[in-house]
């Protein structure tokens, strides 16, 4: 990261006006909102320490490895003075009804955020363009873009910048957009004036997200045990999915949206205007049997450029086997499972055997 910004040091720049322009440029680049905060997240450190000590991060060792660096942006990127926090809606227009897909046990449910292109690349490219726009205006300055790819407390930064409040499911909520959006940050060495945080939380007594979680992963308001979370189990967990959670997963084969689907604030959720988030390969309405039939070459071809690619074909089949085990007992379901009973992967074979036992019972 560069640490050169002579125009600021000389006092020759109107930082308030620059901050306003940065927010406007961000919206021109497709971000719904942009706001600015400083680097002090000390108020979030106790909760982070407690969460890690409880082991709620599961096998995500990087969480513990980075420790409190997540709450100390200026340690992560020395020279950081202020942070531009942004968000971009991701719901693809015209997507099949999520609740209907969840109720049809023969369908595969994939989290709505993963139906299009990999959001990491999309947002990071836009943040890079935002930084380049600033450079064109003021000259070289220090910056670094992050999108769910480093030890950064993204929700805390967005909350402090005034983009919303943390819901009881721990996601960021915004009064005009709900929670179906991606968050990103631009760390800078510019002493930009910070925006005020959202003064109040607006969840009130509502606990719908806690009651909706299929596995009870939201163990208390504002506290998630990742080891129970379906998103963790189907994406982050590398090995065998614990038996007690398999029936609860239902047909959710990549991630889970249940806590968001029941949230009253998501009646304000808007469709994404970003073409890259449009549904690819009909993944919003597809059968478990069809996806289970993909060989590795097909998986890699169709998931190229998708966030789903990173779990690999083996875990993809693992997840689908669980979904098929929870599906209605039909000849095509059982036949699909039997086709992989001798799969080269021990992990796949284990979950296929479990699924077939479910149907035999």
From TrEMBL:
Keywords: 4Fe-4S, Cobalamin, Cobalt, Cytoplasm, Iron, Iron-sulfur, Metal-binding, Oxidoreductase, Queuosine biosynthesis, tRNA processing. Its main location: cytoplasm. Residues 195-223 form the 4Fe-4S ferredoxin-type domain. [4Fe-4S] cluster 2 binds at residues 213, 229, 256, 259. [4Fe-4S] cluster 1 binds at residues 203, 206, 209, 263. Binds 2 [4Fe-4S] clusters per monomer. It catalyses: epoxyqueuosine(34) in tRNA + AH2 = queuosine(34) in tRNA + A + H2O. Coiled coil: none annotated. Its EC number is 1.17.99.6. GO terms for biological process: tRNA queuosine(34) biosynthetic process. TRNA binds at residue 238. GO terms for molecular function: 4 iron, 4 sulfur cluster binding; cobalamin binding; epoxyqueuosine reductase activity; metal ion binding. The keyword Iron applies. Belongs to the QueG family. Monomer. Catalyzes the conversion of epoxyqueuosine (oQ) to queuosine (Q), which is a hypermodified base found in the wobble positions of tRNA(Asp), tRNA(Asn), tRNA(His) and tRNA(Tyr). HAMAP family: QueG. This is Epoxyqueuosine reductase. The gene is queG.
């Amino acid at each position: 990261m560069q640490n050169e910004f002579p125009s600021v040091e000389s006092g020759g720049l109107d930082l308030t006006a620059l901050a306003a322009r940065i927010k406007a440029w961000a919206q021109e680049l497709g971000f719904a909102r942009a706001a600015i905060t400083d680097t002090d997240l000390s108020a979030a450190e106790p909760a982070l320490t407690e969460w890690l000590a409880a082991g709620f991060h599961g096998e995500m060792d990087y969480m513990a490895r980075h420790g409190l660096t997540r709450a100390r942006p200026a340690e992560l990127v020395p020279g950081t003075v202020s942070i531009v926090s942004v968000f971009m809606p991701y719901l693809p227009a015209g997507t099949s009804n999520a609740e209907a897909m969840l109720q049809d046990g023969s369908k595969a449910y994939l989290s709505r955020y993963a139906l299009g292109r990999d959001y990491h690349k999309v947002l990071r490219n836009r943040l890079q363009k935002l930084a380049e726009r600033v450079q064109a205006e003021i000259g070289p300055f220090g910056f670094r873009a992050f999108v769910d790819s480093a030890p950064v407390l993204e929700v805390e930064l967005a909350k402090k910048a005034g983009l919303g409040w943390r819901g009881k499911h721990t996601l960021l909520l915004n009064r005009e957009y709900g929670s179906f959006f991606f968050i990103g940050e631009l760390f800078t060495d510019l002493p930009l004036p910070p925006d005020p945080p959202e003064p109040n939380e607006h969840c009130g007594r509502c606990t719908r997200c806690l009651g909706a979680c299929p596995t009870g992963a939201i163990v208390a308001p504002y506290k998630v045990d990742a080891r129970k979370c379906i998103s963790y189990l189907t994406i982050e967990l590398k090995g065998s999915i614990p038996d007690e959670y398999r029936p609860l997963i239902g047909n959710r084969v990549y991630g889970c949206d249940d806590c968001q689907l029941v949230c009253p604030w998501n009646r304000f959720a808007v469709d994404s205007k970003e073409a890259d988030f449009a549904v690819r390969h009909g993944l919003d309405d597809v059968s478990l049997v069809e996806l289970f039939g993909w060989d590795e070459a097909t998986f890699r071809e169709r998931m190229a450029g998708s966030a789903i690619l990173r779990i690999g074909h083996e875990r993809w089949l693992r997840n689908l086997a669980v979904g098929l085990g929870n599906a209605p007992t039909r000849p095509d379901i059982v036949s699909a499972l039997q086709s992989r009973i001798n799969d080269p992967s021990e992990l796949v074979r284990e979950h296929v055997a479990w699924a077939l036992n479910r149907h035999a019972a």
